[in-house]
Design a protein that fits this description.
The complex is a heterodimer of chains A (about 550) and B (about 300). By secondary structure, chain A is of the alpha+beta class. Helix content of chain A is about 30%, strand content about 25%. The model of chain A is unreliable at about 1-5 and about 25-40 (pLDDT under 50). Chain B has about 300 residues and is an all-alpha fold. Classes of the chains: A alpha+beta (about 550), B mainly alpha (about 300).
Amino acid sequence: MKPIKLITGSSVLLAILWCSLYLAACVAPAAQTGTTTDSGATTSTRPRLVMAIPRAPEILDAQQAYDGDWATMEQIGQALVRIDNASGKLLPDLAKTWAFSEDGKQLTITLPAGATYANGDPLNAQALKDAWARYKTVSPYAVDFEAITKMTVVDTTTLEATFAAPPASLLAVLASSFGGPWDVAAAKKMGDKAFATAPIASGPLLVKTFTANSEVLLGRNEHYQTALPFVQNHGPLHLDEVLVRFIPEEATLANELEAGTVDVVVGLPASAVERLRANPGLQITESALPGYVGLVMNLQRKPFSDLAVRQAIAKALDRETIVKVLGAAAAPQYAFISPATIAHSAETDTYAQKLHPHDVAAAKALLTSAGWTDSNGDGIVEKAGAPFTVKFLVSSTAVDQQQAAQVIQAQLKAIGIDMQISQQEPKAMNDVMVAGEYDMGFDTVGWRDPDIFSLAFAADFWNFPKYNNPDAVKKLDVARYLLDPVARTAAYAELQKIWLGDVVEIPLWQRKFYVAARSGVKGLVVDPVIGQIFLNDVTVEK
Amino acid sequence: MQHYLTQRLLLCIPVVLGVTVIVFAILFLTPGDPVRTMVGPRASEARVQEIRSQLGLDHPWLQQYGRWLGRAMQGDLGISIAAKRPVAQLIREQLPFTLRLTLTALSIGTLLGVLLGVLAAVKHNTWVDHLITFTSLFWFSMPGFWLGLMLILVFGLWLRWTPISGYRGSGALILPALTLGLPQMGSLARLVRSEMLDVLHEEYIRTAHSKGVHPTWVVYRHALRNALIPVTVLIFLGLPWLLGGAVVIETIFAWPGMGRLMYQALTQKDFPVVQGLLLFIALATVSANLLGDVVTALLDPRIEQV
């Protein structure tokens, strides 16, 4: 074989091409807005806090977003009010005062005089009106404000909103940045697309730079003011900047915290909690996400249309065993409204726990009474020759569901039900359940306000169990408009008893939420119920 | 050469078109309603239909495909449902990160792989050969996920020599590039060793030795050039794989590249982003193949005549 002549010029060309590609890639990606500036540090503290969260937000503008998080959107935006977990009463944040009319259909909000957005634009009654009007046009949750029939600017700082009915379910929205003011004038100037990742609002921080899937650098809002009663500092933060990094891998997130390269983790994975709790340099706060993860059955399909069968399944399940497998990620839940949800009732929790206690013998008896018996001794009950075999849908991305499904499979096997686990991509699973083309599966119901059940157990769409109870729907329509927290709690307690009696769904566990901070982070306030963080008093020791 | 290049270019067109048709068709066959995702679960059915109509999603899929292809040829890949920003802009933002990572990994893998492969071939059947063969197989077999986590533990957490994750800092690229490049190195070293062993037994190599040519010159000037032909193909084929397949590495190291963008888009059924990324990867694969063919033809002009 003859030796091949190497064309030297070509190899040089190749090398140049390779280097060009590499240099092009090495050019620092352009930041979306602004530039990073570091101010000087004091002798004992440093000006920047580094936070990490597991999920990268795509949109920072609450009015366009599908969901939010405590570390970014809730620091850029500002709620008008907050909800006291113990009493259910409203507390001030941006709003100076608020008052409902006697019939509850009119809400008058007064903003502090001279308030501005982070860029200095006026934040007055007209601005708030414009913000709510924008919410109705751009938000996926525009229906939240559809009850508003009229908005009147009474004076520079006072807005009066008239509703078709008392907006009790709107309070949870007003108690988050979703219902707060976002600078509509800036949104019009920038366009919604640019505003989505560089929004202007009145929260303690504003966006300096945003790198998709990587981080957002937030700077102090010098115009920030709040009336929150549980913080000391009601003006601009002590911190100059907060860098929020998006780190999706659980092990990497925990390692960054341990190494001290991250100061606070909002949403620490449960898998790392036990190990990091033993670290004296870290403080971990435990709370819970609103709502629950529960077992849902298709009530329009046999045999789940039979109440006795549903009761049998409820009695076959042992939540303590399920939660043991999930470890620090979960706590047992029996009622539909968790402690992190408005209108929670401890009495209803106790009632729910006693209604369907774990009792395999009783479960088997119920199945027998419904006509299901194991006539051939194979361990699976049959009726009219057909074995009790069900397909159980589990999200392919939810590790807790995958773990729990195996425990549930064993528990149902103990009463003669053959459960086959089917993992599905979450959106696809959602669509199958909406269409009613399933037997059983997991349902995750989570929002701060119990009006979510008007979707989950009453509406045409998203009513996974396909539950149809006109009496319960009437009671839901009353409960959603009750402004008095005590009356509202009582109304939802009654509803929960109906749903528990009908075994509409079987709540199994509430998802725990963890915030971890290095001990050098001082003044961090973490809501012990819902895990929301407040940076007003935070300083970071060097 | 011009004829060869034209021929290869013309063959690329139906390949790319075929990929776009398959991608478009698959996304329509998978369950899930992206419009419902956009407008939220509480929107009325009328609102859903209105949005569907606005986006042209109620037209036959062939019509939708034609419209999409026409816009794509002008650089408009649509708007991301989740991020509400142009897909082309998202790709432009993430591409430099992915290029940095993949080119660095490819450089590490190629340089070390070729060197170790040559060394193993030259020192055939010695302990050097056995050691290199064993370590090549070790790195090649190593799951990327595990390798990345171990590197983070050792160099990031215990020794504190490098940043653990992210793209900031001078050493941020080291660990992810090693995680991606070491398995590549293992695979290339094995291939180079095998090709070199074949070439080193050729008559012309024996002739060069007998003529008194320096052994190093024989290896690098005569043998390696012939052994590089299949290796070159593998390198260029590996580039698009690295572009699209680095999702695990990017997730572990919180590296904001296209792999993560693709993963997020798939889980959220953000089909404009998925389509845009798949089209981009298809074009990159075809381009890399074309480049590989050209380089191979330059190395061995006989290939043009095939």
